[in-house]
Design a protein that fits this description.
72% of the residues lie in helices and 0% in strands. By secondary structure, it is mainly alpha-helical. The longest helix has 33 residues. It starts with a helix and ends with a helix.
Length: 315
């Protein structure tokens, strides 16, 4: 009878090594398995973060490696916080964040509520709705660029059919007033299914006994919706807002493919502006300070939000 590979390895292990292994505690064995992962995380995440923080206090430029690096202290941070262009990109990012999250939560919850009602073709419609989030953001950006074309774009023709306006009379990605809404619509189309799936999980986690008890108390459908459905799904909604908020704060590829930050800089989000400072102007120290400010902002807001989410879950 052939021996298993594990037994062969055990027999091939030298006796001194085997005695040491047998003498290890469960905690030591756990650390042996976890240590490579921790080392990898330190190498990939922690070291670059520390390096970025250090560079943020210098005038280092990566395209001039032979130049002397001077310590400038908080000068980079002062320049960023006093730069009106930075605040304009922050405003554009806030506009993008607010409207994409609001629309995705409202539409995603509505779709989840409808899908949760059992009807013929339920699974087919769920699959169709989820398709956009399976695409690459760069692909979605190119796809919507064609839809927004004034001469051949289906979006302009749809708007013209509803409103009676000439499809060639406006350009969604060429108008300074419409371009911010163009990226909002594209991102909402792509990521609303993600919010829908989270809300659908929340709806299907609600025990049917709650609704049965409410019906016994003669509670109306509207009353059941506000006293059972919304409170039970609220943690899932807040979780979806957290995920989409973090992702949209660093949104880059979809907007670059769709508008490139234009026209002008009306759709230039913080991630696009950071990329230009770092890899077009080559202001490495300045862009490092910029990245640190964005990291602290996201981390601080997310920490406060998670505390609020935990309080809602404990109710």
């Amino acid at each position: 009878m052939t021996q298993s590979p594990i037994k062969k390895v055990a027999q091939a292990t030298p006796e001194p090594v085997a005695r040491r292994i047998r003498g290890l505690s469960d905690r030591s064995i756990a650390w042996i398995f976890v240590a490579p992962t921790i080392f990898l995380l330190l190498a990939v995440n922690i070291f670059p973060l520390i390096r970025t923080i250090w560079l943020s206090f210098t005038n280092y430029r990566v395209n001039r490696p032979n130049n002397e690096v001077d310590w400038v202290g908080l000068s980079n941070y002062e320049q960023i916080l006093n730069d009106p262009d930075i605040w304009n990109t922050m405003q554009a990012t806030a506009h993008f964040l607010f409207w994409t999250i609001l629309l995705q939560v409202l539409i995603g919850f509505a779709l989840a509520y409808l899908i949760n009602k059992k009807f013929k073709g339920n699974n087919m419609w769920t699959t169709i709705i989820v398709l956009p989030m399976m695409l690459s953001p760069a692909v979605v950006g190119n796809f919507w660029t064609f839809l927004y074309q004034p001469q051949i774009g289906l979006f302009n023709y749809a708007v013209g059919f509803v409103t009676g306006a000439d499809p060639a009379s406006f350009s969604m990605i060429g108008d300074v007033h419409l371009a911010p809404w163009a990226i909002v619509i594209a991102d909402t189309w792509m990521w609303t299914p993600f919010v829908m799936l989270i809300c659908l999980a929340g709806l299907r986690s609600i025990p049917e006994s709650l609704y049965e008890a409410a019906e016994c108390d003669r509670a109306s459908q509207w009353r059941q919706f506000w006293t059972i459905t919304i409170p039970m799904v609220l943690p899932f909604l807040m979780l979806a807002v957290l995920f989409r908020g973090i992702e949209n704060f660093k949104m880059f590829d979809l907007v670059v493919q769709l508008t490139g930050g234009g026209p002008g800089s009306v759709t230039e989000l913080t991630s696009i502006n950071l990329k230009r400072e770092a890899f077009e102007k080559w202001r490495t120290g300045y862009s490092s300070a910029y990245a640190v400010i964005l990291f602290v902002t996201v981390f601080g807001l997310a920490s406060i939000y998670v505390k609020a989410l935990n309080k809602v879950k404990q109710r």
